[in-house]
């Protein structure tokens, strides 16, 4: 297993750049599938676990959410998922930009763990890297989704390449005209699984 401390050390620097928080919130509006669009697919009284919640940006929209993250004070529980203990079962688990750190074995063991926390019929939403942009980042494929749902007994409801408006994070990007603009493909997959 890649030591979590090394991952935390790197992410603490890369995610807390001065423009970080503002741009991060915007990026959840700019991303086509795996940002705030997910809120349309989650009921207001569903119980949600947000793994790797970062600034916990979904929380104001769904107060019935527990956000966990090892480096962010905004998390409800400041812990890495492998060390998170609960007896609760969730209707929804968000894994957005997080279960692509570590080796394939690390990822598999975290999926096994989250499977113990999801209710039958519960939904898992994914944003996974398809390129190893950092040494500790694993590049997912669509085949991995097919293999994992078979192994852990889920059904894939959605599995899409991810697209984004303003992929280069131009600070002058005009959000008003987003509807007229074409989003560009990014090195991420979006998926929704449902637990059988
Ligand atoms: C790229 S950010 C994604 C943040 C947020 N989910 C989003 O979509 O904007 C990845 C987050 O995962 C967290 N993280 C990394 N390893 C983790 C682990 N093992 N368990 C829980 N969170 C982790 C990081 O601290 C970081 O905040």
Summarize the structure.
By secondary structure, the protein is an alpha/beta fold. Helix content is 23%, strand content 26%. S-adenosylmethionine is lined by residues 4, 7, 11, 15, 24, 51-54, 68-72, 80-82, 96-98, 101.
What is the strand and helix layout of this fold?
Elements (H helix, E strand, L loop, with lengths): L3 H12 L4 H11 L17 E4 L13 E4 L21 E7 L7 H12 L2 E12 L12 H11 L1 E11 L19 E12 L1
Parallel strand pairs: 1-2, 1-3, 3-4
Antiparallel strand pairs: 4-6, 5-6
The protein binds S-adenosylmethionine.
Description:
The chain is 23% helix and 26% strand. It is an alpha/beta fold and 196 residues long. It has a single domain, classed as Vaccinia Virus protein VP39 (Rossmann fold, 3-Layer(aba) Sandwich), CATH 3.40.50.150. It has a 6-stranded mixed β-sheet, covered by helices on one side. It is globular and about 45 Å long. S-adenosylmethionine is lined by residues 4, 7, 11, 15, 24, 51-54, 68-72, 80-82, 96-98, 101.
Task: Name some characteristics of this structure.
single chain, 196 residues, Rossmann fold, 26% strand, binds S-adenosylmethionine
Rg: 16 Å
Strand pairing plus helix content: what structural class?
A: alpha/beta
Number of helices: 4
What is the CATH topology assignment?
A: Rossmann fold
Distinct bound molecules = S-adenosylmethionine
Number of strands: 6
Largest sheet: 6 strands, mixed
Query: Strand content of the residues, in percent?
Result: 25-35%
CATH structural architecture: 3-Layer(aba) Sandwich
Averaged pLDDT, please? Answer: 94
What's the shape? globular
Query: Spatial order of the strands in the main sheet?
Result: 2-1-3-4-6-5
Task: Give the proportion of residues in helices.
Answer: 10-25%
Low-pLDDT windows of residues = none
Distance between the termini: 29 Å
């Amino acid at each position: 297993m890649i030591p979590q401390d090394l991952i935390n050390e790197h992410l603490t620097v890369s995610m807390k750049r001065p423009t970080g928080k503002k741009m991060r919130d915007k990026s959840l509006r700019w991303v086509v599938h795996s940002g705030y669009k997910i809120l349309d697919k989650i009921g207001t009284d569903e119980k949600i676990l947000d793994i790797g919640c970062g600034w916990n940006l979904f929380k104001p929209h769904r107060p019935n959410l527990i956000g966990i993250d090892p480096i962010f004070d905004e998390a409800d529980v400041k812990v890495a998922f492998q060390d998170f203990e609960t007896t609760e079962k969730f209707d929804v688990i968000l894994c957005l930009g997080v279960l692509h750190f570590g080796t394939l074995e690390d990822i598999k063991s975290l999926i096994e763990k989250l499977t113990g926390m999801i209710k039958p019929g519960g939904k898992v939403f994914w944003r996974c890297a398809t390129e190893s942009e950092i040494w500790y980042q694993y590049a997912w494929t669509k085949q991995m989704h097919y293999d994992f749902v078979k192994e852990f007994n889920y059904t894939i409801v959605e599995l899409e390449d991810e697209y984004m408006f303003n992929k280069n994070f131009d600070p002058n990007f005009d959000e008003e005209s987003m509807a007229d603009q074409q989003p560009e493909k990014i090195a991420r997959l979006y998926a929704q699984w449902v637990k059988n």
